[in-house]
């Protein structure tokens, strides 16, 4: 496997676009011989699911995760695989990542691995995540995050019909955490007119930003203009609108958001995400895609490299709290609890994760689901070959 990676370090030209075809063998199992697929049970329903399936494999740089949501098609999911192959060292890292100051990342787990990126002992701040839940569940859920200084609350689970429930939950949150920084995320759950009404209602909570209230970039731009006209000081962040390399340019061109949310797997890797941030010129927050600790490790490496600008400092502060505390949403992970990337004093380390073999066996999916993931990986592998 290491010989394969060394022989293909010239497969991507440094000036090639992120979507350039990869020089790969015909089948993934010629390179990836240790594929594992696990099912992680969740503390509460989140993003409409109560368990998360993820695929894991190793390369010269260590373990990586491939975990596009099951409803994603091959074209979208193949970007997730590109990110996983890069993080594992099976394909070259992109120019942006190579130019980031490298140093050895420590390894958590039962066997050694070495990776270039990050700083030994470095940590990144994270936010807690409050899913749509009854008010009496707010305190128990937040208690899982230890002492985070920022919380992102999910709203609009059922669109505008959820507004009263959202307000009740957020008021309970503010009663419990009057000084905690609050972000909201609607996952594009509103129409433009509904988003305006929701913003007026949510203004009482002193938000750091409101993430993706409406689906389209043009709608985000209209929303920002109308909020300014009404004198509502709500910062808009774009998440679902930042899915491909060309998206941030459109967001920036239209002035559709003041903050962008970036995720390693959906954007095709750490280097691709850094290129996205640079292209937009906007402050960025790294978020997870509801990953195991293996996937969160890639997010932590990206978070450690976020550029600091005057605008970033003004909106997000000196230490950007990233959405990488989602390990607390699982009742089990692929490593022991003391090895998992879960927040301690509001931060997680920049490190590599090595899954525990017993956990991989205990959490393994049934043969039918393994075959489904293997077929999916092969389809994405073929798409990357071009």
TrEMBL record:
GO biological-process terms attached to the record: menaquinone biosynthetic process
Known pathway: Quinol/quinone metabolism; menaquinone biosynthesis; Quinol/quinone metabolism; 1,4-dihydroxy-2-naphthoate biosynthesis; 1,4-dihydroxy-2-naphthoate from chorismate: step 4/7
CDD domains per UniProt: OSBS
Top EC class, one word: lyase
Binding-site positions, Mg(2+): 185, 211, 239
Metal-binding among keywords: yes
A GO MF term: O-succinylbenzoate synthase activity
Catalytic reaction(s) noted: (1R,6R)-6-hydroxy-2-succinyl-cyclohexa-2,4-diene-1-carboxylate = 2-succinylbenzoate + H2O
Alphabetically ordered keywords of this record: Lyase, Magnesium, Menaquinone biosynthesis, Metal-binding
Start and end residues of each Mandelate racemase/muconate lactonizing enzyme C-terminal domain: 135-230
EC number: 4.2.1.113
Protein's recorded name: o-succinylbenzoate synthase
Cofactor(s) essential for the protein: a divalent metal cation
InterPro entries: Enolase-like_C_sf (IPR036849), Enolase-like_N (IPR029017), Enolase_C-like (IPR029065), Mandelate_racemase_C (IPR013342), OSB_synthase_MenC1 (IPR010196)
């Amino acid at each position: 496997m290491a010989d394969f990676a060394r022989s293909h370090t010239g497969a991507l030209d440094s000036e090639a676009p992120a979507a350039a075809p990869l020089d790969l063998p015909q089948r993934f199992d010629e390179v990836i011989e240790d594929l594992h697929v696990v099912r992680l049970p969740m503390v509460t329903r989140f993003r409409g699911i109560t368990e998360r399936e993820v695929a894991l494999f190793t390369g010269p740089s260590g373990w990586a995760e491939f975990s596009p949501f099951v409803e994603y098609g091959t074209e979208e999911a193949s970007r997730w695989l590109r990110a996983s192959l890069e993080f594992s060292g099976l394909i070259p890292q992109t120019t942006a990542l190579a130019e980031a100051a490298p140093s050895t990342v420590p390894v958590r787990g039962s066997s050694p691995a070495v990776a270039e990126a990050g700083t030994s002992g470095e940590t990144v701040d994270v936010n807690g995540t409050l899913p749509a839940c009854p008010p009496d569940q707010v305190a128990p859920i937040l208690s899982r995050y230890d002492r985070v200084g920022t919380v992102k609350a999910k709203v609009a689970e059922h669109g505008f019909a959820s507004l009263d429930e959202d307000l009740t939950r957020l008021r309970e949150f503010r009663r419990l955490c009057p000084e905690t920084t609050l972000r909201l995320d609607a996952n594009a759950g509103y129409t433009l007119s509904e988003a305006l009404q929701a913003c007026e209602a949510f203004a009482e909570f002193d938000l750091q930003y409101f993430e993706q209230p409406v689906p389209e970039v043009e709608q985000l731009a209209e929303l920002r203009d109308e909020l300014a006209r009404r004198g509502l000081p709500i910062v808009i962040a774009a998440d679902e609108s930042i899915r491909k390399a060309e998206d941030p340019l459109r967001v920036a061109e239209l002035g559709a958001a003041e903050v962008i949310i970036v995720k390693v797997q959906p954007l095709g890797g750490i280097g691709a995400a850094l290129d996205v941030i640079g292209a937009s010129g906007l402050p960025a927050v790294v978020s997870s895609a509801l990953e195991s600790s293996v996937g969160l490790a890639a997010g932590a490496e990206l978070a450690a490299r976020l550029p600091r600008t005057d605008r970033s400092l003004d909106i997000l502060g000196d230490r950007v709290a990233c959405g990488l505390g989602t390990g607390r949403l699982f009742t089990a992970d692929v490593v022991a609890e003391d090895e998992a990337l879960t927040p301690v004093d509001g931060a997680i380390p920049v490190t590599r994760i090595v899954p525990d073999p017993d956990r991989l066996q205990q959490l393994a999916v049934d043969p039918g689901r393994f075959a489904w993931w293997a077929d999916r990986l092969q389809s994405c592998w073929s798409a990357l070959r071009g």
